[in-house]
Amino acid sequence: MIRVENITKRFGNYPALHGIDLEIQPGEFIALLGPSGSGKTTLLRIIAGLEFQDEGHVHFNGDDVSDIPVGKRNVGFVFQQYALFRHMTVADNIAFGLTVRKASRRPAKAEIKARAQELLRVVQLEGLGDRYPGQLSGGQRQRVALARALAIEPSLLLLDEPFGALDAKVRKDLRRWLRDLHKQMGLTSIFVTHDQEEALELADRVVVMDHGRIDQIGTPEQVYMEPATAFVSHFVGETNRLPDGRHIRPHDFEIAAHGRDRVLVDNVFRKGGSWRVEGRLEEDGTIIEIDVDAHEAPPAIGDTVTIAARRERTFSNPGD
Amino acid sequence: MPSMTTRKASWRAPSVLPGFGLTFGFTLAWLSLIVLIPLSMLFIKSAGMGWQSFVDVGFSDRALTAYRLSFGTALAAAFVNAVFGLLVAWVLVRYAFPGKRVISALVDLPFALPTAVAGIALTALYAPSGWVGQYLDPLGIKVAFTPIGITVALIFIGLPFVVRSVEPVLADLGKDVEEAAATLGANRAQTFARVIFPAILPALFTGFALAFARGVGEYGSVIFISGNMPGRTEIAPLLIVTQLEQYNYDGATAIAMVMMLVSFAVLFTLNAVQSIRRRRLGA
Known about the structure:
The complex is a heterodimer.
Chain A lengths: L1 E10 L2 E11 L4 E5 L6 H9 L6 E6 L2 E2 L10 E4 L11 H10 L9 H14 L15 H14 L4 E5 L7 H18 L3 E5 L2 H7 L2 E6 L2 E6 L1 H6 L4 H6 L4 E2 L5 E2 L4 E3 L5 E11 L2 E8 L5 E7 L10 E6 L11
Chain B lengths: L19 H28 L3 H8 L2 H34 L5 H13 L2 H12 L6 H4 L10 H26 L2 H9 L4 H30 L2 H7 L9 H10 L3 H33 L2
Helix pairs in contact in B: 1-12, 2-12, 3-7, 3-9, 4-7, 5-7, 5-10, 7-9, 7-10, 8-9, 9-12, 11-12
GO molecular function, one term (chain A): ABC-type sulfate transporter activity
Protein name (chain A): ABC transporter
InterPro entries (chain A): AAA+_ATPase, ABC_SmlMolc_Importer, ABC_transporter-like_ATP-bd, ABC_transporter-like_CS, P-loop_NTPase, Sulph_transpt1
């Protein structure tokens, strides 16, 4: 179990993290979700030992590792830009963590080689062991970085924006694949992302962060359906904020005669399985997005419709 | 149905970047004017002297000793510069300290200083009666007027080449690569030897080649500290000047020819090694 206790970190005068507490169970897949500047990457790096907290402690399985350097924490870290060793072959990259071990703990050469081959198979790059990273595509490099991190049999796998640099299709494939790999290998993993869709799809639990604080920790279902703060509500999934402070998701609106808000329709287009209706509140021009089931007829552009909320939330702290 | 056009066969790849014809023509003309025509004069001149007399002068004992001295000391100096230039670049890139800009400017000084000034200063320092020489002399180490002195002068001259070649590459080397090595359990020495050093090796190589090339051709700083004893501390460029002063233009040309061919072969080889490396990395 990983326990993070009251972590505080400042960069000069800039407070990056304030009193973060977090517990992670073995086998969990955790997403640290937040906008840039929310402190999510700093927290990940502190857990890894690449950055040191000003206050607080990090425990791995009950041991305080706060003062243990990164190389001794046995964590696998996948960097945003992969950070592969460009002058080494893919197989040598993967084997690096084993070859730098002290002679007493280092497996035999043949064993290291076999291990690298096995990992190449795990990340589906068999036969590419002799290539150099410069000869691979982005998605392939990403998987090499992952294999390299897994080679040291880490007790914890940390991924910093693992899909950030990839195009949409590759991203989606890798996402599913990583999810399977995590389960298959029984890993405990934490990944950082600013993409709420990615967090909701992959994680067992999502940690939503903002301005160096945790706003909410919960399952994807919880953070989406029961956002704890106004920030979570509009950062995770789409939300309309009405002038009276109500937060309503586009799919929680219905176009109905009994509604009390009147909306002038500016645009209608198909978005996946539904119609997206964009309009403005007649009252004060607030932009409103509404999802209408694809089987129903959408309103026409220029119409004025009445809408009602099937589900709405209000927050004591309206947020920014 | 797309229209079919046949592109005229061409020896260069099609490119959207304009101006290839103009710039390539200008490059060729410029290179010819500045490099190729003067150098071809060497060929023409030495071709006129006949093979036998070319060999006699170009490969005389005195000339051979001078080549050995020139290339040997240049090589030694380039090696020393590779080591210490790397160190200087390392410090300049990776640490912030007061006076960093001053030190950085000092590195370039050998570029700007008249080489004769460097030669005279070094001779004054390393002569048996000089500030440094007076302590080395009792130990039996003679620097001025020996090949060691020549090497010292060439180290002075070549330092900026290594520092300025390595510096940008070192600065460019991402912090994340080192962090990756650290997360994988590598210690500092392993990280340097297996991650950082191989990454900057090509730049170090370039700096080494430049320092070497500069050392081979260096004249001004060396003639003061070397003592210019024929057969012992006479470098090849000096031998050429000596020949010229004796109105032996053919002799000077022959020696120049040999030096040029050897230098070109060395530089060409270094470049070839580099481009093979680059291709292998797929960069």
